[in-house]
């Protein structure tokens, strides 16, 4: 349940997003606030650039995305343990490529001791 303060912040964010979208539609250059991938950029990525290629989930294009893939690994739904094993290998290879330190040896460690539950 969202608080009143959260609802007000969400409304303000929607107004800002609509204004930016409208300005972009009129051809004005509006900078994005995040360095993330746009939908078009994500669509252009090859399947091999995702931790979960069949689902095209968790892109591994830079160090920031690798860290995000590790942080959100337990939130990916609808995948088998075998798919998680393959995804973890891809994440570790990308982490090595982008010099990201990973303390967990196995993805199952991400589910231990925290709020995450194995689905």
Radius of gyration: 18 Å
Please outline the major beta sheet: 2 strands, antiparallel
Structural class: mainly alpha
Straight-line N-to-C gap: 23 Å
pLDDT averaged over residues: 86
What is the percent of helical residues?
A: 40-55%
Q: Note poorly predicted spans.
A: none
Q: Please tell me what the overall shape is.
A: globular
Strand order in the largest sheet: 1-2
Total helical segments = 4
Total domains: 2
Total strands: the figure is 2
What does this entry look like structurally?
The chain has 119 residues and is mainly α. It folds into two domains: 1-30; 44-119, no CATH class. The chain has four helices and two strands; from the N terminus they run H-H-E-E-H-H. The longest helix is centred in the first third of the chain and has 22 residues, at 4-25. The model has no long low-confidence stretch (mean pLDDT 86).
Topology:
Blueprint: H1 4-25, H2 39-44, E1 50-52, E2 57-59, H3 63-71, H4 81-97
Antiparallel strand pairs: 1-2
List keywords for this structure.
4 helices, globular, mainly alpha, 45% helix, single chain, 119 residues
Briefly say what this structure is.
The chain has 119 residues and is mainly alpha-helical.
């Amino acid at each position: 349940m969202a608080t009143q303060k959260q609802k007000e912040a969400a409304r303000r964010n929607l107004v800002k997003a609509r204004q930016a979208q409208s300005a972009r539609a009129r051809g004005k250059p509006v900078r994005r606030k995040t360095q993330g991938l746009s939908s078009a950029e994500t669509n252009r990525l090859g399947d091999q650039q995702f931790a979960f290629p069949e689902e095209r989930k968790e892109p591994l294009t830079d160090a920031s995305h690798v860290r995000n893939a590790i942080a959100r690994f337990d939130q990916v739904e609808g995948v088998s343990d075998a798919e998680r094993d393959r995804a973890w290998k891809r994440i570790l290879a990308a982490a090595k490529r982008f010099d990201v330190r990973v303390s967990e040896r196995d993805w199952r460690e991400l589910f231990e001791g925290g709020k995450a539950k194995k689905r």
